[in-house]
Amino acid sequence: MMGETMKVDRRDAKLTLAHLYVAFIALALGGLAGLLQTLVRSGKFNLPAGISYYTILTTHGVLLGLVLTTFFIIGFQFAAVSRTSGAFSDRVRFWGWVGFWTMTIGTAMTAFFILTGQAAVLYTFYAPLQAHAGFYLGLTLVVVGSWISGFAIFAHYARWKKQNPGKASPLLTFMSVTNMILWLVCTLGVAATVLFQLLPWSLGITDRINILVSRTLFWYFGHPLVYFWLLPAYMIWYVVIPKVIGGKIFSDSLARLAFILFLIFSIPVGFHHQLLEPGITPFWKYVQVILTFMVVIPSLMTAFAMFATFESYGRSKGATGLFGWLRKLPWGDARFFAPFVGMLFFIPGGAGGIINASHQLDQVVHNTVWVTGHFHLTIATTVVLTFFGAAYWLIPHLSGRVMTKAMNRLAIIQTVVWAIGMTFMSGSMHFAGLLGAPRRSAFSTYGNSPQALEWIPYQIAQAVGGTILFIGIILVLVIVTNLAFFAPKGETEFPVAEAAEPAERTALAMENWKLWIGITVALILIAYTIPFVDMIQNAPPGSKGYKLW
Amino acid sequence: MHLHKYEKIWLAFGIGCLFVFLTVIGVSAFAEGNQPPSCLTTIDPEKVDQTPPFDKPGLVKTGNNEYQLNIVVSAFAFTPNQIEIPKGAKVTINVTSKDVIHGFEVAGTNVNMMVEPGYINTLTKTFDKTGEYTILCNEYCGAGHHMMTGRIKVVD
């Protein structure tokens, strides 16, 4: 096949690097906000100068949940598509830059309104708390910028298909396209509530808002959002990790099938975030719980493929016994070690997700700090450690440098620090949540309630974990700064593995986008039409805006 | 597309588990009535104080050992916030919000629901054990969010 030596075009590399710079600046600032939150919640520390806990919390959520992720993912996908489908045309690259600047200006606007205290509405911005219109406008620009970049990727993909008729597209390109389709379909929901409800209402054009419709549109977006975060990690697992360890992709077709299943099942599931809400009947909640469980299937396939790759590789190196292959894996290579630790954390993370999506169990943990503990395993460990592991080869590949042994060792230490910090923080969040401690709340003893006093030791453990994690953030920033600007010049590989078996015809069938998008839309209509019409027909009087912070 | 034999076993086991879970949830919800709070009744959020039963919030006896507990939630208070319930009472809790979205949680129990302006939410709970329970708001509602609290005392 064409060029295992292929490099990302230098001009495309600049585009990706620009995205990664913003992503890691967001990590630095958002991580600092996270540290302050855990310190406040320990009860031993007050924020100086009258800064509000909720301003810090909003900053943390927006910077890490939306900015770090979206910028890293789009930057990574640009590199992945350029690497596997060839350099971008000038037009595609131009629109890539337009997307980048649109997102960056949007981020700056949003940050301005949060930091000036005009938008302490958290990153979920539930109405009728009403932020300054500039906050919503900034977020709109972030989403619109990501659409522009998505269409740039689609255009490049279409050109590749035209030039290679009858061939299945390169796996990383296929996966990037799938993820951007998922993103496009799901962001339509959040765009609808922002453009038609929140913006006119915050500008004073309309004075009332339908709360339940707004929340439902948000969660139509909010759950696929987490799959938009996860799928790039899966791209790295499926395609990059096998090459890093010296093995092959277990199955090209099954990897594609898993991605298509994510596209189909990850959207019509938002009600599992709304299980305890009035205004939605239990029947429709259960329908979406069933669909939620279906999204587990492609993750099960991914888990199998990963460990099959690891075991086949180990056995090919002469490993014997049931677990002998484990010893053959390159534990000293941070490009493998960081994502691998991420995979391990996905086992409790995924199990916790199934718990959260189950009616009766959600009753116990909904809106407790358990949920915060959950997504700090999934996004803040599994996905983030995988992204760190990717940055360790992606950044030097793009900057024309090589990672030194010392930096690799530091990256291994970083991974261990992260795992320890997160075990403390997320573990104690899970336990405190089971006892009832709420999420998204500043320190409080609830009037010296004996129950709330029991949570304090766990909150101190969270602060310990948060501090360790912040050290982890400093370490990763040292590493990526080194790789971008100071490491020795040289060539670093962008690892792309080959499939164990040549691509089959099925791989081509997986690109029947009309069919997949058709099924996706049909499932969305089935899961949402009737309850959505009910919400509008039986709507209570709308709500005025409130600024209660 | 080729599926390895072990992968078939793994997926059959995994998907089998999912269906067992779904069956457990479904039977518990639809046959045993353990549904999530999903009340469809609407209310004008600006007229909560004039709308029964929230015009006279508090505990009302409705039958033999059966009660209704109506609570008005607003920024940043529960009304009422000190409640005494006889042990063993079956209590239907109705909540609604006068302003933004709140959460209604009785810590250490399964009483947990979203409180949204325009809607009443409801849930039934039997208080079997004596003791003191903390009521708190578990959905961010503004600067005083973490100050919202109340107590339920279950007494003999």
Automatic annotation (TrEMBL), chain A:
GO BP term, example: aerobic respiration
Localization, UniProt: Membrane
Annotated membrane topology: Multi-pass membrane protein
Domain Cytochrome oxidase subunit I profile stretches: 14-541
GO CC list: membrane
Taxonomy, superkingdom: Bacteria
Pfam families xref list: COX1
UniProt keyword terms in alphabetical order: Electron transport, Heme, Iron, Membrane, Metal-binding, Respiratory chain, Transmembrane, Transmembrane helix, Transport
Principal location class: membrane
Family to which this protein belongs: Belongs to the heme-copper respiratory oxidase family.
Protein name per Swiss-Prot or TrEMBL: Cytochrome c oxidase subunit 1
Lineage: Bacteria, Bacillati, Bacillota, Bacilli, Bacillales
From TrEMBL, chain B:
Main location: other
Gene3D superfamilies, alphabetized: Cupredoxins - blue copper proteins
Keyword Hydrolase: no
UniProt GO cellular component terms: cell envelope; membrane
Domain Cytochrome oxidase subunit II copper A binding, residue spans: 55-156
SUPFAM superfamilies in alphabetical order: Cupredoxins
Keywords: Copper, Membrane, Metal-binding, Transmembrane, Transmembrane helix
Superkingdom of the source species: Bacteria
Molecular function, one GO term: cytochrome-c oxidase activity
Record flagged with keyword Transmembrane: yes
Parts of the chain that traverse the membrane: 9-31
Compartment(s): Cell envelope
Catalytic activity: 4 Fe(II)-[cytochrome c] + O2 + 8 H(+)(in) = 4 Fe(III)-[cytochrome c] + 2 H2O + 4 H(+)(out)
Pfam family, one: COX2
Record's function text: Subunits I and II form the functional core of the enzyme complex. Electrons originating in cytochrome c are transferred via heme a and Cu(A) to the binuclear center formed by heme a3 and Cu(B).
Name this protein carries in UniProt: Cytochrome aa3 subunit 2
